[in-house]
């Protein structure tokens, strides 16, 4: 039967999946280890109630186990051991101790110890995230220790008494907890894989959103140039119509003059020659106009500078990227100057710069972090700062991103390519007389600054 709920995870980066699983496992490992360490008073209370004669010896054993477990945990964490190794050492130490006590305890007092050991194994396998093999290994070690010690200490008793005194409950619950550990491992692994697929889909959505915005700006710029070209050609057409009207009028005057005056053939020929000459001059003039009109669309980006307030443009760019930020779980914090900041720039390309810069910053910063946007004026300059205090992208990475565009004349082609946003934003900023600088280190986080002269 076909399983329609099974999702093919063929495109997942296995190295990234392993890293995410290790992060989740380390978190659950810390919870489990500290729970085991702080459960000492509960076990000591059990010794005090049921083993009044030997509770001091048992307390020393438990304190020794606590010291060994704490040492293994702190030393392994400091040495950056794999979380599974640290967890197995700590859990193994406590499982061996618990199994040892359950094996040497008198049968009459064994029930509460087996019950508490069952609870410990059940809680452990429902808390930690590790491979099911480790849960099975610890159960096997525990069973072996209990059976061997029981055989040595209770030669006259049958194994039925072990089962009846709580051992059966312990064996059943601990074995069932191994099944829980297996199910938990598979569920969390599948959930992590789904999260990675969602994250990759979100990243692609951000790229598609950026490409769509790139096309929007290209279309907007093309429409502006087409409008200018249309106006130019319309003016040329008006001139042509005007000249044609004059030409028709002069031709009519010549015809009227011929009709009013008697002339011989020679004068008519002269008039006709004059008419033809004038027509040729007009046709030459019109051909020049048509040539100038055809050459008006050069295909080169031209900036149309105008004075405007930059604050609404920064706010609009931030609002346009709210959805993209929410996909990445990035919190946008906008701090804008209360007064107008007038600059003399190309508004269309300024919007392009802001969108390219902000969208790429959101794409590459840490998931779940905060991004603050500041706009103010200082010493004749308009300053736009983008600050992210999360894990640094890295100066080397940013150098690579900002220097990918080596051919400024190919900027129209470059803006449609993924990963070129930083470089395109820097190139356009420089072309309009501004500067775009950046820093990325543990001290400042990720910092980007745009500077334009005030109008």
Q: Care to describe what's here?
A:
- With 455 residues, the chain is α+β, with helices and mostly antiparallel strands.
- The chain has 2 domains: 14-205, no CATH class; 306-453, Histidine kinase-like ATPase, C-terminal domain (Heat Shock Protein 90), CATH 3.30.565.
- 68% of the residues lie in helices and 10% in strands.
- The chain is built from 14 helices and 7 strands.
- Strand 6 and strand 7 (445-453) form a beta hairpin.
Brief sketch in words of this structure:
Helices cover 68% and strands 10% of the residues.
Task: Summarize this structure as a short list of keywords or feature phrases.
five-stranded mixed β-sheet, two-stranded antiparallel ribbon, disordered N terminus, alpha+beta, 68% helix, 14 helices, 2 domains, 455 residues, Heat Shock Protein 90, elongated
SSE layout and pairings?
Blueprint: H1 14-37, H2 40-50, H3 55-78, H4 83-104, H5 110-127, H6 132-153, H7 159-260, H8 265-294, E1 306-309, H9 311-320, H10 322-327, E2 331-336, E3 342-345, H11 347-364, E4 370-378, E5 381-388, H12 395-402, H13 411-414, H14 421-431, E6 435-441, E7 445-453
Parallel strand pairs: 2-4
Antiparallel strand pairs: 1-3, 4-5, 5-7, 6-7
């Amino acid at each position: 039967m076909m399983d329609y709920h099974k999702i093919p995870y063929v495109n997942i980066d296995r190295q990234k999946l392993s890293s995410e699983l290790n992060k989740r496992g380390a978190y659950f490992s810390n919870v489990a280890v500290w729970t085991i360490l702080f459960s000492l008073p509960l076990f000591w209370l059990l010794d005090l109630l049921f083993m009044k004669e030997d509770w001091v010896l048992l307390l020393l054993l438990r304190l020794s186990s606590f010291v060994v477990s704490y040492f293994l945990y702190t030393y392994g964490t400091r040495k950056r051991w794999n979380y599974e190794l640290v967890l197995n050492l700590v859990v193994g130490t406590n499982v061996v101790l618990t199994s040892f006590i359950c094996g040497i305890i008198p049968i009459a007092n064994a029930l509460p110890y087996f019950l508490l050991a069952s609870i410990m194994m059940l809680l452990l396998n429902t808390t930690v995230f590790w491979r099911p093999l480790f849960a099975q290994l610890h159960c096997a070690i525990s069973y072996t220790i209990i059976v061997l010690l029981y055989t040595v200490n209770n030669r006259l008793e049958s194994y039925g008494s072990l089962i009846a005194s709580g051992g059966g409950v312990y064996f059943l619950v601990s074995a069932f907890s191994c099944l829980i550990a297996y199910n938990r491992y598979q569920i969390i692994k599948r959930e992590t894989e789904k999260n990675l697929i969602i994250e990759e889909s979100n990243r692609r959505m951000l790229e598609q959103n950026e490409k769509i915005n790139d096309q929007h700006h290209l279309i907007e710029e093309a429409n502006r140039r087409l409008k200018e070209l249309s106006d130019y050609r319309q003016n040329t057409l008006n001139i042509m119509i005007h000249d044609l009207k004059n030409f028709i009028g002069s031709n009519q005057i010549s015809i009227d003059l011929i009709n009013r005056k008697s002339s011989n053939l020679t004068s008519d020929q002269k008039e006709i020659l004059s008419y033809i000459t004038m027509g040729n001059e007009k046709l030459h003039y019109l051909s020049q106009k048509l040539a100038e009109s055809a050459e008006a669309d050069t295909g080169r980006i031209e900036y149309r500078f105008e004075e405007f307030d930059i604050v609404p443009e920064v706010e609009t760019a931030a609002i346009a990227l709210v959805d993209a930020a929410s996909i990445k779980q990035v919190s946008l914090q906008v701090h804008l100057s209360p007064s107008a900041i007038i600059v003399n720039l190309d508004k269309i390309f300024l919007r392009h710069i802001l969108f390219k810069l902000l969208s790429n910053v959101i794409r590459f910063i840490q998931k779940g972090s905060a991004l603050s946007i500041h706009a103010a004026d200082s010493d004749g300059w308009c300053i736009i700062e983008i600050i992210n205090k999360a894990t640094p992208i890295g100066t080397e990475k940013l150098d690579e991103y900002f220097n990918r565009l080596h051919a400024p004349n190919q900027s129209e082609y470059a803006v449609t390519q993924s990963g070129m946003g930083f470089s395109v934003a820097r190139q356009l900023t420089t072309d309009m007389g501004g500067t775009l600088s950046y820093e990325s280190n543990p001290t400042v986080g990720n910092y980007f600054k745009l500077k334009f002269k005030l109008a």
